From TrEMBL:
E.C. designation(s): 2.5.1.21
Family matches, as Pfam families: SQS_PSY
GO molecular function terms noted in the UniProt entry: squalene synthase [NAD(P)H] activity
Keyword terms of this UniProt record: Transferase
PANTHER family: BIFUNCTIONAL LYCOPENE CYCLASE/PHYTOENE SYNTHASE
Protein name from the UniProt record: Squalene synthase HpnC
NCBIfam families in the record: HpnC (TIGR03464)
Taxonomic lineage of the native organism: Bacteria, Pseudomonadati, Pseudomonadota, Betaproteobacteria, Burkholderiales
Length: 285
């Protein structure tokens, strides 16, 4: 199975808000984008899927990091994830991918395991933004690298969009994350609205919880708005791809606002009927 087919098969087993290496991407860039996706998705699964103990997850991620650095040096990796690292090695060699960005992704997955194991949350927005800097922003920067964009303003706007998408994903996944001990609503924000962790786990949608979630959604929206000018910086297909990604995130955000705290119980997803309005909004941009 080739790299793109492997990534699409992997995506088929996971809900994704946005397509992987879609038809809007230039054909020459689909293999490296698929290789990056397969690398990140596999690492995320090591951190999150199955019933492995935290110690085993951390050991697996450490071995995965060793293979990443072997791959980047052009060395042979171990057999376990060879189907991931062979295409990634080709992408690193052909496109000079910045390996520290891939390493940042792994550091975020390690942090996820550690936080979940200890049921620790995030003290404030600065701490959560640091996590987003490593868990989401590298993806945007890697894509800009593939498109030959190194402009500082473009990178800053890409970071804003990627961070916003990560925040939206947090609020989208509350019904799944909270029971698993993942707390992305920060302690400082919860304190501002008089909401405790026990309140969130109890699942009763109180006015305080509705206000907390609405304020968190506003934060994600403002962050997204800061990055929107990037769609006009990027020409051709990548610009249209980004427009649709942004509209997908904003569509989920609108659904969350309509729920008024119901995302404590129900996870909203993109449906086929959402795509015509998303396309229209992308055109309007």
């Amino acid at each position: 199975m080739n790299t793109l087919a492997s990534a699409q098969a992997l995506a088929a087993t996971h809900y994704e808000n946005f397509p992987v290496a879609s038809w809007l991407c230039p054909p020459r860039l689909r293999p490296p984008i698929a290789a990056i996706y397969a690398f990140a998705r596999t690492a995320d699964d090591l951190a999150d899927e199955g019933d492995a103990a935290p110690a085993q997850r951390l050991a697996d991620l450490a071995a995965y990091r060793q293979d990443l650095h072997a791959c980047a040096q052009g060395w042979t990796t171990g057999p376990r994830w060879r189907s991931v690292f062979l295409p990634l090695q080709q992408a690193i060699h052909t496109h000079q991918l910045p390996v520290p960005l891939l390493d940042d992704l792994l550091s975020a997955f390690v942090q996820d395991v550690q936080k979940t194991a200890s049921s620790a949350g995030y003290a404030d927005r600065a701490e959560l933004l640091d996590y987003c800097r490593r868990s989401a922003n590298p993806v945007g920067r890697l894509l800009l690298h593939l498109y030959g964009m190194a402009d500082a303003q473009a990178l800053e706007r890409s970071d804003a969009i990627c961070t916003a998408l990560q925040l939206i994903n947090f609020w989208q996944d509350l019904s799944q994350d909270l029971p698993r001990g993942r707390f992305y609503l920060t302690e400082a924000d919860c304190a501002r609205f008089g909401v405790t962790r026990q309140d969130l786990l109890a699942g009763e949608v109180t006015p305080s919880i509705r206000h907390l979630i609405a304020d968190s959604a506003d934060w994600a929206d403002a962050t997204m708005q800061a990055g929107l000018p990037l769609v006009h910086q990027l020409p051709g297909r990548i610009g249209w791809e980004l427009r649709l990604v942004v509209q997908g995130g904003l569509t989920i955000l609108r659904k969350l606002r309509t729920q008024q705290g119901g995302n404590l119980h129900t996870r909203q997803t993109l449906k086929k009927r959402d795509f015509p309005p998303m396309l229209w909004q992308a055109i309007q941009m």
